[in-house]
Task: structure prediction
Amino acid sequence: MSFSAILLLEDGSVMEGIGFGAQETSVGEIVFNTSMLGYQEIITDPSYAKQIIAFTHPHIGNTGINDEDNESDSIFASGIVIKDLPNHFSNWRAKQSLESFLQSNKTIGISNIDTRALTVKLRDHGSLKACIAPGNKDSSIEDANKALNQFNGLEGLDLAKEVSTKDSFAWDEGTWPNYKEVKNEKLIVAVDFGVKKNILRLLRKHVGNVKVVNAEISFEDLMKLKPDGVFLSNGPGDPEPCSYAIELIKQLLKINMPIFGICLGHQLLALSGGCKTYKMKFGHHGGNHPVQDLASKTVFITSQNHGFAVESSSLPKNIFPTHISLFDQSLQGLAFKDKPAFSFQGHPEASPGPHELEELFIKFNSMIDNNAKKN
Result:
């Protein structure tokens, strides 16, 4: 059921549109995503906690929502902004509409917004605090302003421990459609800072058995699991306040534990090694970002979703860059010279997006094998 709604930005701009989903006021940092497919995977990515997603592609919702493509068990995003909400959806796997999916997950959306103009604003001025509120401009602007003023933004905000699993669990599913799994005795402990399901599928496909644990797990409790390698997951928020994770990783590096990090995990590994991170102007959010492997000079088209990055100039002598973004030359990958540890800023698991860097999971498997031979 649709309703009147407004989108209020921190610069005072107000856009009126048609609301759908939950009729609840919501605030977050608004970012634009340029992906042309995979809106279900994007909406259910925990990395979007406390963010409002503005889709640049005009056709969002036309294939509905299915039971297989969620990247988590709920919606962590504060809301979504789209150009048009379709009256009908059609896909052989679809089970419900985008509108009903948002409603059941208590998330608000707003349509009939000029997303092109909004994207230009965000591109020029950077990510902004924003509020989606039900009602028209006259009736909702005061409450929307109050809500917006209570939100301080993502910088300095530790969200990883808020979205992390409370209880450890084993992951036994490979990749769609045949759910292929590797058969070996390796155990990978995946530290959940907001992990996507397709990352776990690819670890299961290429590396070994997977145990997912809470973000605040202690070094002692993690080592009781006797892992062959540790994976540091993606996640939302600022990496710098995650002192518990940084300390854990430092201890893992000391014992030469094989480590692979993605997205937030990449940033946390970098901080543990002495690097610095910074807040980007509007971040990278989309499925068509060119990234270059600095060793081979090969260019990969990648999926991206991050608002923070590692400062290239802060890398110490024992860490070297492996990948850079060809959009803005920002650091996309790093590796340790003296430790079995590497990381990647983008999303090699895609979902949605290109699968060109799935080889990084194979690299992790090889690193574990090589480390075992040395020991």
